[in-house]
Amino acid sequence: MGNGELKIENAELQTQKPKQRDDSVGLSNKGARDERSNSQFSIFESQLASACNAAADELTASRVLINALESDNAALKQRLEIEKQMTQLLTELDQTRKSESEALRSAITATNETLTAKDAVISTQDKLIETLKRKKSSPWKRVGDVLIGIGLGTLL
User: What angle do CA 38, 23, 15 make, to 5 degrees?
Assistant: First the structure.
């Protein structure tokens, strides 16, 4: 029986008033009225007890559900914290990879500049070699160099 039915019956019991009869009939019916009143009261008591039991069962079930929801909330909060930590670590990893990529780009740029500089040195040396090949020493210059070398050797 639901709570609504109990309230309706309770209201009916309260609105029902014993009918007034004549005193002579009233005295003889007093026992019958008391019995009927006790019967209605026991019915009301039984309905009240069953309603209280139903409410207690509902309260117990509510507490079980509340505990389950609280544990779910705690698990979700823990998951949220883990997700925040993972996001932070992934952000740090992303920044590290970006800086590593930038460092590799600078290293490649420096290597390219070094290669360009070496190419320029090689080109300059090739030009110098070509220039030196074109210049032929005259025999008189060689003789002069030899005489200078001999003169220096004798002085020492």
Answer: 45
Residue 47, amino acid:
Q
Q: Is 6 exposed, middle or buried (0-12, 13-18, 19+ CB in 10 A)?
A: middle
> pLDDT, tens digit, for every residue of 106-143?
999 999 999 999 999 999 999 988 887 777 667 777 78
Residues 9 and 44 sit within 8 Å (Cβ to Cβ): yes
Alpha-carbon distances of 124 from 49, 117, 131, rounded to whole Å = 111, 10, 10
- Count of alpha carbons within 13 angstroms of residue 125, beta-carbon side: 6
Range of the domain at 44: 3-155
